[in-house]
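Q: Please design a sequence for this.
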């Protein structure tokens, strides 16, 4: 799953704490639990329709970054994630995993979502990736 691979990549870069097999950490796939206060969620959001013959896909992901009641903390983390991902190219996210041809944020900075019900500020980063995706019908 691309979101898991991206979470693992971000963990390897020291930007989040993620484990696909153990509880804990501050990065979650397809959900944003109530705790910890400071957390990152990586959500699959579909993607663009692709050619039926070419072996590439363009999936999209959304990162939701939750900080503290101080809006600056979450924003700074969101900017660090934006900087690490916008323009990322020619990289395999995990050994033997998805090869990212390119990754681009769909806006020029993290989007402020405002505070959640507990007053913790949230930000969003929407990503478009272009990845290699070979199948029996695509070259």
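A: Design:
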């Amino acid at each position: 799953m691309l979101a898991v691979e991206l979470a693992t990549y971000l963990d390897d870069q020291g930007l989040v704490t993620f484990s696909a097999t153990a509880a804990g950490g501050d990065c979650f796939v397809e959900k944003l639990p109530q705790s910890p206060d400071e957390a990152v969620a990586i959500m699959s959001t579909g993607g663009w329709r692709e050619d039926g013959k070419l072996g590439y896909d363009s999936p999209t992901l959304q990162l939701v970054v939750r900080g503290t009641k101080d809006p600056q903390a979450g924003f700074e983390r969101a900017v660090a994630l934006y900087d690490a991902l916008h323009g990322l190219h020619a990289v395999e996210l995990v050994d033997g995993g998805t090869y990212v041809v390119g990754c681009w944020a769909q806006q020029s900075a993290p989007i402020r979502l405002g505070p959640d019900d507990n007053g913790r500020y949230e930000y969003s980063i929407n990503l478009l990736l272009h990845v290699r995706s070979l199948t029996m019908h695509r070259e």
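Q: Thanks. Anything notable?
A: Residues 2-132 form a domain with the STM4215-like fold (CATH 3.30.2000.30). The chain has a mean pLDDT of 95.
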